[in-house]
Amino acid sequence: MVYSAEILALIPARSGSKSIPHKNVQPFAGKPLLAHSIEQARACPAITRVIVSTDSEAYAEIARRFGAEVPFLRPAGISGDASTDLEVFQHALRWLVEKEGRAPELCVHLRPTHPNRRVADITAAIDRLHAHPEWDSVRSVVPAPEPPFKMWFRSATGELTPVVTTDIPEAHSRPRQTLPAAFLQNASIDIIRSRTILEKNSIAGATIGSILLEEFHDIDTPGQLAAAEADFAWREGVPTGKTFCCDIDGVLATLVPNHDYTLAGPMVENIGRLNRLHAAGNRIVLFTARGSMTGIDWAELTRRQMRDWGVAHHELRLGKPAADYYIDDRMLSLAALAGLDRVSDSPPIRP
User: Fold this and answer.
1) What is the pTM assigned to this prediction?
2) Which domain holds residue 36?
3) Residue ranges with strand state E in the chain
């Protein structure tokens, strides 16, 4: 087998998603979702070639428009729900060997469903694999949200078996802070040696290295798509020219007992963040349910509080329907708003 010094970014983009129809080309921050992975690959100085593996000619046209090669269409037999990454990568590499006589040294796996990655992270992952010739691949991981030692398989009769076996006695009942740290692959970046794929018949190999990232934004549901897009906005810097509709209580004003808003105080950090959005040229609309539960007109108090607290806004609306929960497919969380304080081109990457 002939291996060149090329580093290939291979972006799989089948058309048959069930969770979100045509997920890989859904609009995301003004472009098809697929386009972001292509642009990140092309911006990485270490990557020498970008190929999209798809079963759809329509997807192929989108990929070419954003600068990727689509030299083949993926067969339907490896484009279904149960198709594996290994099948997709073996097909692409074998096509290159057959048509061009060689395979690249490394394959960079960039899933379209994780658009919130940084080019610096791709470069760091490639550098890690180059620095460790004993590794078969490198995967990006994040701290696991739950200890795997507390997870179980459950039989048909209801009997439990630990998912993870360990020498720690009754690890399932120990405080989580006393258990070893665990990590979850975040579907953002995989770097694999072509030899691992073609000669070891594996998508990861036996020895797997890692880079530690901070975020998990793999998209499989409409809610995850909306959350990832909100986070993406902060990653690109403070947005401009948008309209932000902001609640007051619990966001800009402290929560108070018995809906007595005379007791409310300012949430200074959030007010500062909202004012940054206002200063960047965004339209700020304050929308509150004050009065819906009490029947009291809180309009004048609310206007005075917003003025005295220095809340920059264009419009104040009262009368939002009272409810315990709101369901909204465009929700921007407080965590996302806090992201204004950590906008950065390249945050620390931990080995």
Assistant:
1) 0.78
2) 7-144+181-220
3) 7-12, 27-28, 31-32, 49-53, 106-109, 137-143, 152-154, 160-162, 183-193, 208-212, 243-246, 283-288, 315-318
